[in-house]
Amino acid sequence: MNIKSTNKVILAIETSCDETAASVCINGKIYSNVIFQQEDHSNLGGVVPEIASRAHLKKINQVVSNSLEQANISITDVDALAIANGPGLMGSLLVGSGFAKGLASAHSIPMLPVDHLSAHIYAHFIDAPIPELPFACLLVSGGHTFIFEMNEKYQLSLIGKTIDDAAGEALDKCAKLMKLPYPGGPEIDRLSKMGNPNAFVFSKPKVADYNYSFSGLKTAFLNLIRNQEQKNPNFIEENLFDLCASIQKTIVDYLIEVFKKYLKYSQIRNIGISGGVAANSMLREAIANLGEQVDANFFIPDLSYCTDNAAMIAKAGDMQFDQLKTTEPNFEPYAKSPWKK
What we know:
The protein is α/β, with parallel strands linked by helices. The chain folds into two domains: about 10-120 and about 305-340, Nucleotidyltransferase, domain 5; about 130-300, Nucleotidyltransferase, domain 5. The protein is built from nine helices and eleven strands. Strands 10-9-6-7-8-11 form a six-stranded mixed β-sheet, with helices on both faces. The protein has a five-stranded mixed β-sheet with strand order 3-2-1-4-5, sandwiched between helices. β6 and β7 form a beta hairpin. The longest helix has about 30 residues, at about 235-265. The protein is globular.
């Protein structure tokens, strides 16, 4: 099927971490979003870069082929290859880049490097309702916690960030202390529904401007468990639901409090969340409540677009097709990011 003459076709590849993903976007609409989620890391307590890279090598051809097939096109129909350009695991990124370079060379297709973090924000523009601009977004994942603002030209400015650990990382490490399976964030979310979020109180860090810090919360959680286990070796088991609910509530409240402070200053009335932690049920409820508090329209991507996926890469490539310079990806962290502080 040759549709090049009348359509803009973007094939996207995402291999930033442990998801091997490919997606096809035609005239701004996602026609396929194929994701292979690696399972080898669940018993290891975290993603092992070497294992992740080898798994990408085994699956990337199949994932890309399936994506093209689901969209009912061939590689010759593709106008541009949008490639996740980092941040991420170097080995994993290079697998995606190497595969894309082969396709690009064989079929004379230009390559579009897409910033992985920016793509999480572009996930809001895949399906209706779509935010009006300017738009403020709280991006929360296992490795990153940022507040971004997008202006009327779709340009991103970095407003605030964590000065140490990310919110998702804090959840995962607290889960590990409770001996929950990896990834721990979703497990905490699941178990917290059966607990009392006010059972344990943790102080929220005070950081300048619109920034965050989560290392102190992890330490406070660790100290609570150590102190209580000295008195009762079964403390975690007997208080698991309350521990999950309390640490999750603290982290979500902290995320929203800082974001709210910025919204009061900026007066932006279109807000959203994105990134893997945007799948957290308490955070999704909190952003809806925040929208009501500040009289703002709130936006939450579909769950399938919160964790790492290629549809967000495809959408970012589609929306930036005329602005982005087609070139080989550069994996220096943030070197080509289309946003600045």
